[in-house]
């Protein structure tokens, strides 16, 4: 039996300190939020931010969030779900179909499409906000749900991600064998390819869900009806209304509402975490 020596990797003090600062930077705001949602408005302004106040007002804050301003928070929550289900769901579907087609079919102009997709990824969304607003204004779609849903359907990064993933995850030989057996292209896609694409689909959907859920700038310029606001814009209006002359601050409700906004995203990540991890690592090891 031959012996061997195992050397531990050296620890970098600088890297450890840097990661420690990044950890504190990430966790500190969440810690402050968890303590703050247990305080009422006076305690929020007078007590130490990283500890409890004189009373425990969590359940009172939760109740007030859903009753304040006529209970409009529930409407904002419903609007956000609609934008996510239709917008992010549609973006995932289009990215999956487009990425699979570009990865597994050869046609004239394919390289040009690739260049356009890469160029679209490089363009920030804020740069397209004003042209999109002008276009939708001409079409009469501003101040409607379609003004948020239609732009959300376009995801160049999701298309590129599915393109790269489908090229590695779906063997061409498997598709050719299905065609030899007489399977149509649609049947091959839904019965064979779609199952192999599940990790990539989940990864793209997570990115699309987070982007749509946190969307703020597009609703800000497209919507002026509070009944159509998503959570991000709705909570901002509460914050803005509470800072005017003679206004009554409701910072405790804004913070509690922000906490309720985070919870669904955390749940989605925890549920789909294993698919997301496998999707990101796919193709990293060759067999």
Automatic annotation (TrEMBL):
Could you tell me where this protein is found in the cell?
Answer: Cell membrane
Query: Record's InterPro entries?
Result: MetI-like, MetI-like_sf
Domain of life here?
Answer: Bacteria
| Coarse class of the protein's main subcellular location | membrane
Q: How does it sit in the membrane?
A: Multi-pass membrane protein
Q: Which residues cross the membrane?
A: 12-35, 76-100, 112-134, 146-167, 188-213, 250-272
Please list the residue ranges annotated as the ABC transmembrane type-1 domain.
77-272
User: Does the keyword field hold Disulfide bond?
Assistant: no
SUPFAM superfamilies from the xrefs? MetI-like (SSF161098)
Keywords, A to Z, come to:
Cell membrane, Membrane, Transmembrane, Transmembrane helix, Transport
Family classification: Belongs to the binding-protein-dependent transport system permease family.
- Name-wise, this protein is Carbohydrate ABC transporter permease
Native organism is Myceligenerans pegani
């Amino acid at each position: 039996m031959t012996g061997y020596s195992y050397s531990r990797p050296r620890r970098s003090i600088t890297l450890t300190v840097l990661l420690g600062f990044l950890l504190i930077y990430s966790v500190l705001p969440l810690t402050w939020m968890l303590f703050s949602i247990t305080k009422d408005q006076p305690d929020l302004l007078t007590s130490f931010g990283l500890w409890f106040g004189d009373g425990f007002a969590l359940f009172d804050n939760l109740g007030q969030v859903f009753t304040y301003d006529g209970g409009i928070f529930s409407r904002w929550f419903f609007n956000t779900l609609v934008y996510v289900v239709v917008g992010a769901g549609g973006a995932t579907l289009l990215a999956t179909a487009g990425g699979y087609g570009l990865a597994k079919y050869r046609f004239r102009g394919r390289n040009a499409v690739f260049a356009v997709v890469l160029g679209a990824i490089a363009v920030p969304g804020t740069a397209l906000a004003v042209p999109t607003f002008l276009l939708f204004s001409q079409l009469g779609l501003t101040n409607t749900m379609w003004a948020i849903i239609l732009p959300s359907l376009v995801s160049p990064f999701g298309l590129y991600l599915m393109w790269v993933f489908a090229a590695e995850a779906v063997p061409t030989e498997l598709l050719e064998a299905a065609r030899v057996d007489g399977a149509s292209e649609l049947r091959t896609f839904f019965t064979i390819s779609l199952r192999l694409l599940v990790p990539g689909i989940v990864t793209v959907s997570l990115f699309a869900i987070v982007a749509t859920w946190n969307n703020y700038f597009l609703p800000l310029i497209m919507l002026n009806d509070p009944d159509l606001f998503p959570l991000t814009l709705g909570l901002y209006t509460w914050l803005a209304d509470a800072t005017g002359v003679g206004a009554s601050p409701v910072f405790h409700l804004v913070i509690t509402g922000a906490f309720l906004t985070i919870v669904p995203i955390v749940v989605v990540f925890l549920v789909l975490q294993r698919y997301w991890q496998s999707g990101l690592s796919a193709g990293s090891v060759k067999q």
